[in-house]
Write a structure and sequence with these properties.
The chain is an all-alpha fold and about 270 residues long. It has helices spanning about 1-40, 45-60, 65-75, 80-90, 100-115, 120-125, 140-150, 155-165, 170-185, 190-195, 205-220, 225-235, 245-255.
Length: about 270
């Protein structure tokens, strides 16, 4: 009799603990499913990623990573765009969402808003992304730059590129984007020339980078630096050197003509 009473008492004591642990177990399962979904998403396996996000949300409707992942997928179709935006907003507002994905969520919300000419919404969401954050990568920064330029916010585009460059390891792609902004959009040839002077030309950089830096050096009357880049380009190309490059070299030697790059040069 005492054993039966003990077992009943034990069950009564364990019941509240069971109710407490069940949501925690569900949340843990949801997080694991969402993490696997993100891996599938990054691998381009969209169908299986969506299935995992749905399973995660069935276990925990507020799972931030699952909301983010499903929101990203749904944002690719116009018919589900508003649902996607709501999911991304909900995900971004949760502290548990890793900063890397929070930045991507705000960026995608801004891109969706841009398609509907919602200027204020675009700027508000871009302002929530810090280019100085270690969680923000070059692809996010380049997409931010594109949006700012679409809105004619050239100085903001310059600010985020400069901030990213100052807080991350130098990357030729980011430098080239910043250089292009200086040379084409801002017509700030002195700033462009300073950026060219910092490039390690022994490393692998786009060939057009060297040619356009040669043009910029010539535009600010640094003809020796311009000639050095042109000669290096010709040495690598040999007989395959383009006619316009040979003509550019001759103009640099003679110090004549206009040298600043144009859209076609990029």
């Amino acid at each position: 009799m005492q054993t039966q009473k003990y077992n009943r008492l034990r069950k009564l004591l364990l019941l509240p603990l069971l109710f407490t642990l069940t949501p925690l177990i569900a949340c843990g399962r949801a997080k694991a499913l969402a993490e696997e979904g993100v891996i599938r998403l990054e691998q381009g396996k969209q169908t299986s990623a969506l299935e995992l996000f749905d399973r995660a949300l069935r276990s925990d409707p507020k799972e931030p990573l699952a909301l983010f992942g499903k929101g990203i997928l749904l944002s690719e179709e116009q018919i589900t765009e508003e649902i996607a935006r709501a999911m991304l907003i909900q995900a971004a507002q949760q502290e548990a969402l890793p900063e890397k994905f929070r930045a991507q969520a705000y960026l995608r919300i801004a891109e969706l808003a841009a398609t509907h000419n919602e200027r204020d919404t675009v700027l508000q969401n871009l302002a929530k992304i810090s280019a100085a954050s270690p969680a923000v990568d070059k692809n996010v920064v380049r997409r931010m730059t594109t949006l700012y330029l679409q809105l004619k916010e050239k100085n903001r585009a310059r600010e985020i590129l400069t901030l990213y460059r100052e807080n991350h390891k130098a990357e030729s792609e980011v430098d080239y984007t910043l250089f292009r902004l200086y040379a084409l959009d801002l017509k700030d040839f002195k700033a462009a020339a300073k950026l060219c002077a910092k490039v390690n030309w022994k490393e692998k950089v786009p060939e057009k980078y060297g040619l356009n830096c040669a043009r910029i050096f010539a535009a600010v009357n640094d003809f020796p630096a311009a000639l050095e880049l042109i000669d290096g380009y010709i040495a690598r190309k040999g007989n395959a050197t383009e006619k316009q490059v040979s003509e550019l070299r001759e103009n640099i030697v003679r110090k004549r003509g206009k040298f600043e790059p144009n859209e076609a040069d990029f």
